[in-house]
Amino acid sequence: MSGDNVIKVKQKTISHIGRKHIPLPKGVQVKLNYGEIVVTGPKGTLKQQMHSDVEVEVKDSTVVVSRISPSKLHHALHGLTRSLIANAVIGVTEGYQKTLQIMGVGYRAQQAGQGLVLNVGYSHSVEIKPPSDVTVVVEGNNRIHVQGVDKQKVGEVAAKIRRVRPPNAYKEKGIRYDDEQLRFKPGKSAVRKE
After folding, report:
1. pLDDT exceeds cutoff 60 at 82
2. CA distance 51 to 79
3. Which of 28, 111, 112, 120 could in theory staple to 165 by disulfide, Cβ–Cβ 3.0 to 4.6 A?
4. What are residue 87's DSSP bridge partners?
5. Is 183 within the bounds of a domain?
6. Cβ distance 85 to 32 under 8 Å?
7. Tens of pLDDT along 131-162?
8. C-alpha angle 157/161/167, rounded to 5°?
């Protein structure tokens, strides 16, 4: 071991998401209005507000996002703006979907026009009406598909449905996301028997 004292300094990791260019698939158009980006594709049109400290350019069927200074705020806005535009491009081409599963004996979901009626152990049924640009499809009695072009709205509607009856850690009942990993607990009576 050498006598020199070496001090290691942790370098801050900076997100490189904002530097990535966004390729535009065929049929997708991006227009820049004052403080707003309009993305149009086969599945619809999305509008996204843009911060004045971030510059957005459309070059050779790609979208380039750049910041005006290396400050911490502009680093954050750089990556955020790039992610929001990329999400809009994916939304108008492929769309977004969240799938929920209802667990529990007698628990079920029914389609009611554009909306949804849930019977999940309450004395009354719960009705959910999604926004006009979000579609809710019931598969069987216990699977719900939430679809739309706006990632944020699809997530909000799915979270609203899950909030009606969140998964119970002991009884294995409730509404959960299809890809959600749950850890069920045995309960006090099961612990006593061991």
Report:
1. yes
2. 12
3. 120
4. none
5. no
6. no
7. 988 999 999 889 999 999 999 999 999 999 99
8. 135
